[in-house]
Amino acid sequence: MLGLEESIYALDWNNNLAVVIITLICYDYILQFEKEVAFVWERQWSVMSYLYLVVRYFGIVLAMYVAAVSYGILLFMQWGFSVYFCLAEVILIWRLYALYNQSKIILYVLLGLFLPIVTLYITTNISSWSRPSAMSVYEVTITPNIKYCTASFHIGPMPAVYASIPVICYEILLVVLAIVVLWRHLKERKEIQMKPNVYVVMIVRYHFIYFILNVATEIIVAVLWVHLSTVALNPVLLFKDTARLIIVPRLIISIWDTHANDNCNWSNPRTSTPFQIEKGARVYTCP
């Protein structure tokens, strides 16, 4: 297909993709709204409450702008997803901080290694996405009344590949720390013949899921710089623009939901962490 037919085909894909993305995000929002009211709006707010609201509603804003393509909006989307990634990493760091009994060393090390990642994202966005010589947006006219914009990438995927290596290494560190604390927890529980703490297992599971998601996203970002066909490009964009927006809010609200269903007192008045320490083992107590 050439010329007008190809433009109409691409526009049709673009519109359908936007509808699917917005539908998935809104459907997930509707599913989680009752829990949001119960665990956020009707309770005293905490750091996690603010983080949840930011990732939930900022994610909806990003989903709404998927179909509206212009150079400015494309930059907003790229910077927006970078900010969203950083917020998700803060949530994971905070969860690990709790799992390691509020260890200041863990917190400082993870934050210290995270700052170069933030700097890398800023540098990559400026050098690869914000320069017209690297990426540009041009207008395609189908009829005098029907126009749409599409992006054109002028450099290869290698800069994105190199930029993704430190990010993937950092993700490996996070998931390894989560697996280590799970292994220690399972070992301690086996010694005292108790079942594993559901919160530890859940947090580590989400860490692993998010690790796989982030690795796939970094690969996808690199693939975007390769000139793919419309049929191949749009499923890639569908995954990239929806998976993270759905998973990240669930990193927070799933813990609240499990706690409510278990009806367990899982706050330690001394440490304010979701785990109590009893004879060297992490436990939770139910009335």
- The succession of helices and strands, N to C, reads HHHHEEHHHEE
Radius of gyration from the alpha-carbon trace, in angstroms: 22 Å
Strand content: 5-15%
Largest sheet: 2 strands, antiparallel
Describe the protein's topology.
Layout: H1 3-41, H2 47-64, H3 71-99, H4 104-129, E1 135-143, E2 146-153, H5 158-191, H6 198-224, H7 230-262, E3 276-278, E4 281-283
Antiparallel strand pairs: 1-2, 3-4
Helix pairs in contact: 1-2, 1-7, 2-3, 2-7, 3-4, 3-5, 3-7, 4-5, 5-6, 6-7
Describe it:
By secondary structure, the protein is mainly alpha-helical. The chain has helices spanning 3-41, 47-64, 71-99, 104-129, 158-191, 198-224, 230-262, and strands spanning 135-143, 146-153, 276-278, 281-283. It has a two-stranded antiparallel sheet. A two-stranded antiparallel ribbon has the order 3-4. A hairpin with a 2-residue loop joins strand 3 and strand 4 (281-283). The longest helix is centred in the first third of the chain and has 39 residues, at 3-41.
Tags for this entry?
8% strand, 287 residues, 72% helix, 4 strands
Concise structural overview:
With 287 residues, this protein is mainly alpha-helical.
